[in-house]
User: Fold these one by one.
Assistant:
Number 1:
Amino acid sequence: MATIRANFSLSSQNALSYPFSIESQLSALADSGHSIRSKVLGTAQGADAVTVAKADDKADVAYVYVRNLAGEREYTITLYVGTTNIAKIAGGEFAFFPAYPDLDFKVFAAKANTTIEYAVFGVDDTQAKLG
């Protein structure tokens, strides 16, 4: 079984009335995954959205990473599940989170042809079927 590692650091000298620094690390088991770059054609929820994490592909948890490669902040992408928007990611921003493995996570863009990078890792669900 392989291991994936993620490191996160957040700090500011002046966003609050005092300086702060938050750091966290994750080490998780994974035996499968993918890392892909793709253009997002859809500009609303629907058929042209990009599926970044497929339901029932992972057994317990899916570790999902989505990065907006647009150079302009206003070329946002929206991450959604079902009909609920869950994250708005500006150009140059990213999201990484552990997700329920039984949900489809999809992305649409404010501007067609916005390029994203995404990855999903976890323990493969041997019960999952294609089709």
Number 2:
Amino acid sequence: MSQFTFIVNPQAGKGDARKVFAAIQRELRHRSADYRTVMTERPGHATEAAREADSPVIVGVGGDGTLNEIANGMAGSGRSLGIIPAGSGNDFIKSVGVPRRPVDALQILFTGVPRTVDVGTVLCTADKEGGGNSSPRLFVNGVGIGFDAAVAARTREIPLLGGTALYLVAVLQTLGRYTAPVFSMHGEHAQRNAPALLIAVGNGVCAGGGFYLTPDARVDDGLLDICAVDDKNVLEILRLMPRVMRGKHHNVPGVKFFRDRSFVITADTLFYVHADGEIVGANVRRVEIGLRASSLNIIVPKKHGQR
């Protein structure tokens, strides 16, 4: 049994993940580390590889979507997740303190400590054209509903760009062609019925490569943070974006915050849903969001360990 199983998504970061892992391998050889490697070949492969791996530490080399797949294969197993960021957004690391530079993130695998965090669940019900998921899917960072998810879908069609630049371009290209549904949200604390630009559900603080939609979220507090933004025109959205990128939109008119453990969202028209940046629902009419507290162990820097 190897100490580490590295699950590498070679398509992550517009193909940068392959180069990132080549550099990581040189450092692993220098350390004489005991590890094995799985290169993913298709959607869902990382989940299968994580489920089958027998290493105590499974390391995701990719973006938030790669971590999502791995978590779906290992959450609740008692094994630990290591992170080498190599995606376009890399939002989840901002909530757990893993360094952005891959070589620094590798160091954490050897010097860090385990931290137990929550994971969310998302179940989409679609119309007769399909586009839902028949069983709950886990997410580690967040879910986006409405405009946020439409932007995530658009990023898949934009070549070359990555990071915040990719999401900014996708936002600009989605503006003007998006119609806000009337969303009904029902939970113990989250109650709402109004046209909404987006509803962001955060286990972590950041989404979309640098948008701090749920800046007060904690990955281990047993709650999900919700940011609901009323329907806005293009100029209002452009004015809001800089504040969201700093997490300073608490007092903006038409922006509401909630915390809850589970809730249901429906709409009068079909909508998109993303989980950790990956589209998990298209043509969706209903989505159920839940929480599994303390379900995933992550290797983090010592100063970000269990609190």
